[in-house]
Design a protein that fits this description.
alpha+beta, seven-stranded mixed beta sheet, five-stranded antiparallel beta sheet, 21 strands
Length: 477
Amino acid sequence: MMRAKRGRNASPLLCTYDEEEMKEYSEKNYDVIVAGGGPAGITAAIAAARNGAKTLLVERYGFLDGQSSASLVYPWMSFHDLQGHQVIQGIAQEIVERLIALDASPGHVPDTIGYVSMLTPFDVEAFKYVAQEMVLQAGADLLFHTWVTDAAVKGETIDALGGVNKSGRAELHGKIFIDATGDADVAYFAGAELAKGREADGATQPMTMNFRLGGVDMEQVRDYMEKHRDEFYPATRYDILNQLPYPTGVQGFYTIWKEGNLPIPRQQLLFFAGMRPGEIGVNTSRIIGLDATSADDLTKAEIEGRRQVMLLVRFLRERVPGFADCYLITTPTQIGVRETRRIIGEYVLAGDDVTQAHRFPDSIARSAYPIDIHDPKAAGNVTFDVKLDHDIPYRCLLPKGVKNLLAAGRIISVTHEAFAAIRVTPPVMAIGQAAGTAAALCIRHNIHPRDVNIRELQHLLIAQGASLVLAKSQLEN
């Protein structure tokens, strides 16, 4: 367990500049301020605004979508359990439907790797547009190119966030704050109790620089898979491989990878089909032993990540069937970060809660993604299948030590093991919707997040499309 070094005892960075651009935000008092425009922040802002709260979404880049776009983390996995039952809906599913309407996603399709039952490909650029329009249509304000740099805290209450951008610094005043930064930045600045990485040594899962390739012959890839089945993930869905236009995902080429002897601590290739013929997203690089909350380490990771990308492109062209004519389309805006800080909340979701499919009376979301721990210091993965979905309790969104802050996304209160099951996009979207809805209830009733009536929150979530499993007694109350 770690304690925040900033917050109540920090030298204040907050000040108000006279620039007209920033006065508009500095002089507004918002009901809800969401920090971070990734999948959790998007759904949190939409939910808060739709439920009547005056909402501001603050994002450091010039677009929404966080890791999905900035780090090219796609497709989304998984809205479904291993049996194919959809357990995540609500705003997350609405986003998918809007993408389908733009021909920017085929919707939920079978995962040919067999790691999950279904995955959801999408066009990254279309998602940026869809997310932006949904937030604005909900009635929330957007502030791009703005880093949250500090928090003004009185007692255990955040009064304002400090932001910095091209216009200078500004105070962003709100009543309820939602930390959707992915790194628990707001909680850190506010002095909340935090944890990082695995409990034994604080080591975090490695970073990965995903990248997009074009010119891949997926027919050759499919033919090689059919003829060399022992070279691929044991659960590979050969029964559906020939029923689809192309493999949706591929994990393997074990012998070819081993013979390549690349200086990358990975055991196989992993890539996913893109939205266009011959286009794929490669998720194979790995940078271990660095801390993504350190600017120096992030710099080292970006440098090493691009070096690994160039090694991989050459390796693929020279050795892997179907890749002889491939070319690099793009590397990401930033390296993909799997794990950093998370809050210590009123309940800490554990690995057993995930694997045993535990139900909770204060459930606000469900997830069925497996426990997937990329070894913080070595090449392998530790994986536990999740046969059935599990609940995510509302208490996991409530950080200790700060009264008017909600956590959303991968920073909620979980162990290192449980974190590996809730860190992917669909679960964090569901968590974001719950956080935004809870924040709006706080404004409606003039209360703190800990005082939210959980039955009211659950019923409101269900009424707005979220998928929860509640006992009959809960539904009647």
